[in-house]
DNA sequence: CATTTAAGAAACCATTCGGTTGCAAATATA
DNA sequence: TATATTTGCAACCGAATGGTTTCTTAAATG
């Protein structure tokens, strides 16, 4: 099964999990408490995030703490870079203005 | 069918299409020439991208030119913002160093 | 030592996804 | 006008996805 970070962040629950554990590590049960879904479902999401190395585990007794490997998020940033150059250019700002005028005329 | 930009960029072909038409508008046939897939398959991807307003159409005779609405890419950037703050912090750089040392010990 | 709790793994199911094939509509060309 | 080209749309198919249920393992608790 080929997975990458773009597929990983496609699911809204996974994005929410990422945000949730960005600042502090959490156990699957604690994470699941934040969603209207079962623990097993969250566990599956965590497995996918772990496979993509977006998340890392840390066993502590019978509990497993999951935390974000934030540097992995940079991969998205790197892909975005090519578009950032475009949207920051003056030409594109002009284009936006023109399309806004077009809309107002309609 | 609920779609958002994160689902749209999950597919590698769609990401390639986005990059391809980022700088110049192209017709479906011209786009399809760049991939090992059928025109109809590309057409489906374009429909999804259009639904998400990542791409806009411009009819010209019987041809339809597709181009990127680059400002839509900012939505990804906005989501990334929360993590950028974390990965740019000194604390996290230190964390990375520590985990690297950990790996070397193993 | 028996019970409870935390968590992963496997099996199953309905839905979605990406792709192909075939067809229809609209425009260009001879 | 007849033909070719460009494109979108609908139907279909196999694979993947997200979720639930059930089961097992391992650690904590009484």
Report on this structure.
- The structure is a homodimer of 106-residue chains.
- By secondary structure, the first copy, chain A, is mainly α.
- Chain A folds into 2 domains: 5-70, Arc Repressor Mutant, subunit A, CATH 1.10.10; 74-105, no CATH class.
- Chain A has helices at residues 5-8, 12-20, 28-32, 39-51, 74-87, 90-105; strands spanning 55-60, 63-68.
- A two-stranded antiparallel ribbon of chain A has the order 1-2.
- In chain A, strand 1 and strand 2 (63-68) form a beta hairpin.
- The longest helix of chain A is centred in the last third of the chain and has 16 residues, at 90-105.
- Chain A is elongated and about 55 Å long.
- Mean pLDDT of chain A is 88; it is low at 100-106.
- Chain A binds a DNA duplex (30 and 30 nucleotides) through residues 1, 11, 13, 27-29, 37-41, 43-45, 47, 61-64.
